[in-house]
């Protein structure tokens, strides 16, 4: 018996963010992020999305494209995604200005290159928006789930567990769907030597951006005010801590 | 013109974050001189809806429909955008809850509105320009965002704005949106909610433990401490990675960001990625046997000691305090 092979097309949206150990400082009178000496990585939540896509493609019945909206400096991050196992990459040649701008670029790409599954990370760890997932979905008139903890695909149907306050919710929908992945969906993958070698020759297509009006802008940054010195309480005197929390900190 | 606030219910009840967003929206309405309309979707009794008046809503739109019993972001987004238009809302406020995060971008897209998500303070308003402070770089910084679109959407972080009772009252009106069947392609199969557990993002007190606890069998002392305090429990990343605790308890840069009044960190070293998710807590207490643990540098109070000895004693002392 012959089985018709249906290849599922997966698009993984990745952003290029400062390494999690980065010290965050600003320049230009606190109006711009100081990228001096910063190491960039694939956003950790996007690594989960990528790992899931690569997992789904393991049997050979899915193809994985990564897309990044960024200038040329993001290419090492994109190559890393290819090393992890994506088949090809697309870079929309523009510095990301806000979530609306990024989501419009991605949605525009998908309109011209339809896919079955769009994965994003639940949020990026730089601006901490959780916007791209649902804006892309809205622009494409697709269903979406923003904070997914589990994802399984069976034929044309996705079953997704999402986080809710104090619990979880299980939903299902038919493809295509946009899913924002959080911890639990997959374990991030570390590229192996073969992956790194083959990533060099995998296609990375550069596409020019479309015009999008930016809706919001960041006018300034602040660093959090440091806390005062710690008040140490003797381990044998926990009553003292209770007292401090009650009468000084007023939190109990 | 008006301000529209969406209030989320959980099985027919409003939680604290619902009153927080109404109070927040009321403060904006007072500044702009607009009236405040609240909107609720789902099966909520009138007596619960009328409570919203006490936080500043003058009108409550009630959307009740069997099909809308469960949250579906696409459908709820359409309804809220429709209500915003019919109420001529210039600002839509909602909670930056797990559901809110999937909903706010849809509303903003439909209304051509700028969206500020994760707002932690009231906006600074001058004419049509709103400036809003939000946490960025996983709480390592704050960013001020400027919104200039005619309509604006603001998603407020839980626990960042104080509930204020106004003593007012609200009229309840039913609102019948036009439903688009295409919006219901996501089907809710199951909802599991541990009703005895306090939701982590909204908790006022969080008791959190790390690898210093040695193994999942030792979490009894953490749960007992949390219980006397009425606190939610949390953990560091390696703890949930090792499946000692569920992922839903993992706080930090790649987990949940919390900002409770009191965060108690037990057997957690205080790695930069952990601190990123907890540093906006109002008071931080650290219990660690290593006096050099980095967490002490960002703590308000600390005890250098063995968690297995200190924590049960603290629980006892708190019991005594609560009963006195
Ligand atoms: C990309 C990336 C993202 C990350 N994201 C997160 C995140 O979101 N959240 C997070 O938490 N981590 C995160 N991490 C991991 C982080 O770097 C640390 O490894 C982690 O926070 C350490 O967890 P811990 O403090 O529980 O364990 P450890 O660092 O092993 O610390 C255990 C502590 O317990 C103390 N201790 C031991 N025994 C006792 C005892 N009997 N009594 C009292 N104290 C005791 C020790 O002194 C020590 O300080 C991330 C890392 C990376 C690379």
UniProtKB/TrEMBL annotation, chain B:
Cofactors demanded by this protein: FAD
Domain called Electron transfer flavoprotein alpha/beta-subunit N-terminal: residue spans: 3-188
SUPFAM superfamilies for the chain: Adenine nucleotide alpha hydrolases-like, DHS-like NAD/FAD-binding domain
Co-factor remark: Binds 1 FAD per dimer.
Pfam families: ETF (PF01012), ETF_alpha (PF00766)
Gene3D superfamilies hit by this protein: HUPs, TPP-binding domain
Alphabetically ordered keywords of this record: Electron transport, FAD, Flavoprotein, Transport
Binding-site residues for FAD, renumbered to this chain: 211, 267-274, 288
Signal peptide residue numbers: none
Entries under InterPro entries matching the protein: DHS-like_NAD/FAD-binding_dom, ETF_a/b_N, ETF_a/FixB, ETF_asu_C, Rossmann-like_a/b/a_fold
Superkingdom in the source lineage: Bacteria
A GO BP entry: fatty acid beta-oxidation using acyl-CoA dehydrogenase
Molecular-function GO term, any one: electron transfer activity
PANTHER family on file: ELECTRON TRANSFER FLAVOPROTEIN ALPHA (PTHR43153), ELECTRON TRANSFER FLAVOPROTEIN SUBUNIT ALPHA, MITOCHONDRIAL (PTHR43153:SF1)
Entry's family note: Belongs to the ETF alpha-subunit/FixB family.
Protein name: Electron transfer flavoprotein subunit alpha
């Amino acid at each position: 018996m012959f089985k018709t092979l249906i290849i599922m097309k997966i698009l993984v949206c990745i952003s290029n963010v400062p390494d999690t150990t980065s010290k965050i400082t600003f320049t230009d009178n606190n109006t711009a992020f100081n990228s001096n000496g910063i190491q960039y990585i694939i956003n950790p939540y996007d690594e989960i999305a990528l790992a899931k896509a690569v997992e789904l493609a393991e049997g050979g019945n899915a193809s994985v494209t990564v897309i990044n909206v960024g200038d040329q400096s993001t290419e090492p991050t994109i190559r890393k995604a290819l090393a992890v196992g994506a088949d090809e990459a697309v870079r929309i040649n523009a510095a990301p200005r806000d979530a609306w701008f990024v989501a419009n670029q991605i949605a525009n790409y998908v309109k011209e290159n339809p896919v079955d599954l769009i994965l994003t990370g639940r949020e990026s760890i730089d601006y901490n928006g959780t916007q791209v997932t649902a804006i892309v979905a809205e622009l494409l008139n697709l269903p979406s789930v923003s904070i997914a903890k589990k994802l399984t695909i069976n034929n044309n149907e996705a079953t997704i567990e999402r986080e809710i306050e104090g619990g979880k919710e299980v939903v299902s929908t038919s493809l295509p769907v946009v899913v924002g992945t959080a911890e639990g969906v997959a374990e991030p993958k570390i590229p192996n030597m073969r992956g790194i070698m083959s990533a060099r020759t995998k296609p990375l297509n550069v596409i020019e951006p479309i015009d999008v009006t930016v809706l919001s802008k960041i006018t300034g940054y602040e660093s959090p005010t440091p806390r005062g010195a710690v008040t140490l309480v003797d381990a044998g005197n926990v009553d003292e801590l209770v007292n401090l929390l009650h009468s000084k900190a007023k939190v109990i | 013109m008006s301000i529209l606030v969406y209030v989320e219910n959980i099985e027919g009840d409003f939680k604290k974050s619902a009153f927080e967003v109404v109070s927040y929206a009321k403060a904006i309405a007072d500044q702009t001189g607009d009236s405040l309309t609240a909107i609720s979707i789902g099966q909520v009794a009138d007596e619960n809806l009328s409570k919203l008046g006490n936080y500043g809503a003058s009108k409550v739109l009630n959307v009740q429909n069997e099909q809308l019993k469960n949250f579906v972001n696409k459908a709820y987004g359409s309804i809220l955008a429709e209500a915003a238009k019919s109420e001529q809302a210039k600002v839509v406020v909602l909670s930056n809850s797990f559901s809110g995060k999937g909903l706010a971008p849809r509303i903003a897209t439909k209304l051509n509105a700028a969206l500020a998500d994760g707002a932690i303070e009231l906006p600074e308003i001058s004419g049509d320009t709103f400036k809003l402070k939000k946490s960025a770089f996983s709480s390592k910084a704050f960013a001020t965002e400027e919104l200039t679109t005619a309509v604006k959407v603001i998603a407020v972080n839980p626990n960042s704005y104080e509930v204020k009772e106004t003593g007012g009252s609200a009229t309840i009106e039913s609102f019948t949106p036009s439903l688009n069947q295409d919006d219901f392609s996501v089907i809710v199969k199951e909802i599991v909610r541990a009703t005895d557990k306090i939701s982590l993002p909204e908790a006022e007190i969080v008791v959190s433990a790390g690898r210093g606890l040695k193994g999942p069998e030792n979490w009894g002392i953490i749960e007992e401490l949390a219980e006397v305090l009425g606190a939610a429990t949390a953990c560091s990343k390696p703890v949930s990675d090792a499946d000692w605790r569920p992922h839903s308890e993992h706080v930090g840069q790649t987990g949940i960001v919390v900002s409770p009044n009191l965060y108690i960190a037990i057997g957690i070293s205080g790695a930069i990625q952990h601190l990123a998710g907890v540093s906006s807590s109002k008071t931080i207490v650290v219990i660690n046997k290593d006096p050099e643990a980095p967490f002490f540098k960002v703590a308000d109070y600390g005890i250098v000691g063995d968690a297995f000895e200190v924590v049960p004693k603290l629980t006892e002392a708190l019991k005594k305090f609560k009963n006195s």
